[in-house]
Please model this.
Amino acid sequence: MKKHTRKVTVIIIIFLAGLTTMLSAQNYPFELPKLGYEYNALEPVIDAATMEIHYSKHHATYVKNLNNAVKGSKFEGYSLEKLMLNAKETGEAIHNNAGGHFNHSMYWSILSLKSPFNPESEVGKAVIQTFGSLDSLKKLLNKAGLTRFGSGWAWLYVKTNKELAVCSSPNQDNPIMDVSPERGIPILCIDVWEHAYYLKYQNKRADYLNAILNAINWEAVNKNYTEALVSPLLKTMK
Ligand SMILES: [Fe+2]
Model:
């Protein structure tokens, strides 16, 4: 086999393997995704102990409980997206654990200390056009997280008209779900459950929010944004 042909074959195999993993992770049986970095990678914003417990205990439990709830039910053939789109019908166990799995998977992927905001990126331009500046967006996300009573999430999401917006949700809800008053595709999320910050910040949710909004992986958010704009899901939610 020629060197070039061998290289192309290897690339195709890696692509197909990645695609298979990605797709299988989104259907029953659901799997805990790889974290992609060490537990201490986000220190000092998030300490290693919080990361380890949050990922390996909390998120893993959502995945386990989701599989237990879906197993043998009429929803076994549903994708994670479809479960969330039909949260009213699936019942509380699937509704909460599907959200827990999706929300945490996004949360891990949009955190980094090494991927700053780029005003020239697609999402960078949209943030400035919509909110005026990154600081204005941070203030809105901070307020959304701070005013969410009890446990929940703060979101930056693409509305069905493709505009950006900020909201918060209770428990493990998110804007994809049919139970949500705000509908759209999330591109950035902040976990404001106490388990996300209590070890380091105790009851000071505001301090956690201020810190974590400076640890966003804007390259990942940009990818989420460009994918959301062309997603058929937006039409489904209209
Ligand atoms: Fe969490």
